[in-house]
Structure formats: C-alpha cells, structure tokens
Design a protein that fits this description.
Layout lengths: L3 H30 L1 E6 L6 E2 L3 E5 L2 E4 L18 E7 L2 E8 L2 H5 L5 E4 L1 E9 L2 E9 L4 E3 L2 H12 L9 E7 L5 E8 L2 E4 L4
Antiparallel strand pairs: 1-11, 2-3, 3-10, 4-9, 5-6, 5-7, 8-9, 11-12, 12-13
Length: 194
C-alpha cells in the first residue's frame, strides 16, 4: 500500500495538470471565437503588491448628447445586458436591459453581460455624464516595465480628448466578455498564455 502512494500522487498530479491545460485551451478557444470589440478605457493605478503588476481597466466613456444615464446602477453580478454600438472605430455604450433583446433594441449590434453606473464629471470646461461598464474584465496582467509604460501612456491623456486607449474584448455567444488585450497609443498588446 505504501509503495502505491507515489504512483497515486503522480497520477493525481497528472490529472490535475491535464484539467488545467484543458481549461486554458477552452478559454483560449472561446476568446478566439467571440466577436472582438474595442472599449475605451481610463487610467487607474496599475500595481498591487500582492497581485503582481497589472493595468487596472476602467471602461468609462462620455455619454453622447441625448442619451440619458441608466436609471439605476447595476453590477456585473446582476445578470443584466449592455448594448454596444460601433462608433469611430470602437464600440460605445448604447443602453442596458434585463434581456439580450432589450439591450439590442436601442440600436446596438453587440450585447454583453454586465452592469453599469453613471456619474457626472468635469471634462475640460464642461460637465458631462460618464458611464462606466462593469463586464467582468478589470485588469490586464503584464510584466513591470510593460505595466508602467501602459500606465504612463494612459496618464498622459487629457480630459475631454478622444480616447487613445482601448480594451480589446471578445464577446462570446453566451454574452460573456473575455479580455484579449489592450491598445494604448496605437500599440496593441495581446494577452497570451504561452
């Protein structure tokens, strides 16, 4: 019985390693199969001593004139849907709904699961409503030099300027958002597992 113990431990380790590789391959396939959208993002502190180096993603965008703030804030866990529509080479918030069809009803061509909250911000010389998307994508892990370079490029953006930083997100058939990478200052950095 004691002789068989190392064999059992090795077999269990092999099974766990295969399960982990299978999960990574499945997620990578889902990421590749989804519809790619670019969402504007803002600068946030990119480092956390316990979590490693990363760029925190705050997916905020100014609401177009005439588009009201959502009536109530909602979190990703709420199970609501966000409608996104293409504009100027990226996707913008178009509305929120309890179902995929309700989110797409406002002229959106992509619906993603998530929540939103709205706030009033000073942009340049005027105030504007800004909506922040909560789609379950909140950080991009990178090595220290890369995280600091991305943070520096994000911090150089002035309020009211056109967005120059985007989260590259894959939206699957299930409505789940999966991060593919980021674009900052025209340079794309993809998330890779290998």
């Amino acid at each position: 019985m004691i002789r068989a113990l190392p064999i059992r431990i090795a077999a269990a380790a092999a099974v766990l390693a295969l399960v982990l590789v299978g999960l990574v391959v499945r997620e990578n396939g889902a990421r590749a199969a989804g519809r790619e959208v670019l969402l504007p993002m803002e600068a946030v502190d990119p480092r956390d001593l316990l979590s490693g180096h990363y760029v925190a993603l705050r997916l905020s965008q100014r609401l177009p004139l005439g588009l009201p703030c959502p009536k109530e804030a909602s979190a990703y866990e709420s199970g609501r849907w966000i409608g996104l529509q293409p504009a100027d080479g990226h996707h913008r918030y178009a509305g929120v709904g309890a179902t995929r069809q309700a989110a797409l009803a406002g002229g959106a061509d992509v619906a993603v699961r998530g929540g939103v909250y709205c706030s009033r911000m000073a942009l340049g010389n005027a105030d504007a409503d800004v909506v922040t998307l909560d789609i379950g994508v909140d950080r991009f892990h990178a090595d220290q030099d890369e995280a600091q370079a991305i943070d520096k490029a994000l911090a150089q953006r002035r309020p009211g300027e056109a967005p120059s930083a985007f989260a590259v997100v894959s939206v699957g058939q299930d409505g789940r958002a999966r991060l593919k990478g980021v674009i900052v200052g025209g340079k794309r950095t993809d998330l890779t597992w290998w």
